[in-house]
Design a protein that fits this description.
- It is built from six helices and four strands, in the order ααααβαβαββ.
- The chain has 125 residues and is α+β, with helices and mostly antiparallel strands.
- It has one domain.
- Bound molecules: zinc ion (2 copies).
- One zinc ion binds next to helix 6.
């Protein structure tokens, strides 16, 4: 049975690293080829479908918003781009709307903060 929700397709090329690209930085090349890869496209589609196309953050608050971006909880870097446990694992993915995605990137949780004297304080995360 088809579900009642059909995620919008027109923004389907929007992706996580595009945010930084929009802010004037060039998208890193390793990320670009990853986001263009068929395996990522398939993972992304399947993940979105599994969430019914809804933003997970909004849904947790009882709001139904269309999810637009599949976000990596643990960010993709040059070092882990070849590691499917990071890049393709559903454990590391989250379907977010634009607003929640921006939010997620603004407050990246840190386990420790380092002050100007180099003192390390755990944040309790
Ligand atoms: Zn949302
Ligand atoms: Zn993201």
């Amino acid at each position: 049975m088809d579900t009642t929700l059909h995620p919008k397709r027109e923004n389907s090329t929007l992706m996580c690293t595009q945010l930084s690209a929009e802010r004037g930085q060039r998208m890193k090349q390793y990320a670009e080829s990853f986001y263009k890869s068929r395996i990522w496209q398939n993972t992304r589609e399947a993940y979105m479908k599994s969430k019914g196309g809804l933003c997970e953050e909004c849904y947790a608050q009882g709001i139904c918003n269309a999810g637009e971006i599949v976000h990596h909880i643990k960010p993709i870097t040059k070092n882990n781009i070849g590691n499917p446990d990071i890049t393709l694992s559903w454990e590391n993915l989250r379907l977010l709307c634009r607003a929640c995605h921006e939010h997620a990137h603004r407050r990246t949780p840190k386990r420790y903060t380092v002050d100007e004297y180099g003192r390390v304080t755990p944040t309790g995360l």
